[in-house]
TrEMBL record:
Keywords: Receptor
SUPFAM superfamilies: Periplasmic binding protein-like II
Keyword Iron applies: no
One Pfam family recorded for the sequence: TctC
Record protein name field: Tripartite-type tricarboxylate transporter receptor subunit TctC
Annotated source species: Rhodoferax saidenbachensis
Highest taxon above the source species: Bacteria
Length: 315
């Protein structure tokens, strides 16, 4: 069902009548990762600010696509929403040939919440002090250095793949089922490098247990201002980041979409909420519904070529 289907507003959804019962926020990744952290923050703040009941519900698996599929199948109830991001909405459709939904047709991009660079890090006891150390070691021993990501074909995995190509090196990718398992193995020294969203890694970075080597965005992260970008480390124009936002199934009444967009954007303007998001390593950014929809469509088209060039496949 196309996005324009929300233009018809059933009388049962008169403005101001929503919500009348708890809202389920599907979290398509395991507890502890960047998506989970931001989802719970938004759910809790929506509950506090509006006296709603917004309940996070982790539905992990298949690169985040299981949670999206479940939300689409729930239909336009107004009470099933999902925290999606670039991984499962922009990248995954080009990796899975049989997804029962199209992100640009079967979902409405309701409210952009935040964006974040990817961080390349290593354990505090690692021999690598800089990104240049990693490149030198990889050139001396191709395919000997390992890096973990939240999963095959995720934006984070592809950030690692793009860095390999930019640096002209070969390092071995170890995919995990979510951010937290990769983080645990990096802390234990079972993998040489962790490639992660900043929200998933920042607590361990601040605790001194992970050493950040670079962030992948064009500009430095406000959460990690002392960490250089990949571009500053010698790889001009390197820029990879990911975003998070709230989606609902196509056909959800416009009154519901408008209410959710308005209330989430109010949260993002709140200094306390902004600080809480930044403390997790992300940058809050409010958008109107049409702005977020355009971002989804643009990225969806752009990343088809990136995924194909990477050769990433779902095993």
């Amino acid at each position: 069902m196309a996005l324009v289907s929300v233009a018809v507003l059933p009388t049962a959804w008169a403005q101001g009548s929503y919500p009348t019962k708890p809202i389920r926020m599907v979290v398509p990744f395991p507890p502890g990762g960047g998506t989970d952290i931001l989802s719970r923050l938004v759910a809790n703040k929506l509950t506090e600010a509006n006296h709603w009941t917004v309940v996070p519900d982790n539905r992990a698996g298949a690169g985040g696509t299981i949670g999206i599929t479940e939300t689409v199948k729930a239909g336009p109830t107004g009470y099933d929403i999902v925290m999606g991001q670039k991984d499962n909405l922009v990248v995954a459709p080009w990796l899975y040939g049989n997804l029962p939904w199209d992100p640009t047709k079967d979902l409405i991009a309701v409210a952009h919440v935040a964006y974040t660079p990817v961080v390349i890090a290593t354990s505090a006891g690692s021999r690598f002090k800089t990104l240049a150390d990693v490149v030198a070691a990889a050139k001396a021993a191709p395919d000997a250095i390992t890096y973990g990501s939240p999963g095959n074909g995720t934006t984070i995995h592809l950030a690692g793949d793009l860095f390999e190509k930019a640096a002209g090196i070969k390092i071995r990718h170890i995919p995990y089922k979510g951010s937290n398992p990769a983080l645990m193995d990096a802390l234990a020294g079972n993998i040489d490098l962790l490639v992660s969203s900043v929200p998933s890694a920042i607590a361990q970075i601040k605790a001194g247990k992970l050493r950040p080597l670079a962030v992948t965005s064009a500009a430095r992260s406000s959460s990690l201002p002392d960490v250089p970008t990949v571009a500053e480390s010698g790889y001009k124009d390197f820029d990879v980041s990911t975003w998070y936002g709230v989606f609902v199934p196509a056909g959800t009444p416009v009154a519901v979409v408008t209410t959710l967009n308005t209330e989430i954007n109010k949260l993002l303007a709140n200094p306390e909420v902004k600080a809480a998001i930044q403390a997790q390593g992300a940058e809050p950014l409010a958008m109107k519904v049409d702005q977020f929809s355009n971002l989804l469509k643009t990225d969806y088209a752009k990343w088809k070529g990136i995924v194909q060039a990477s050769g990433a496949k779902i095993e």
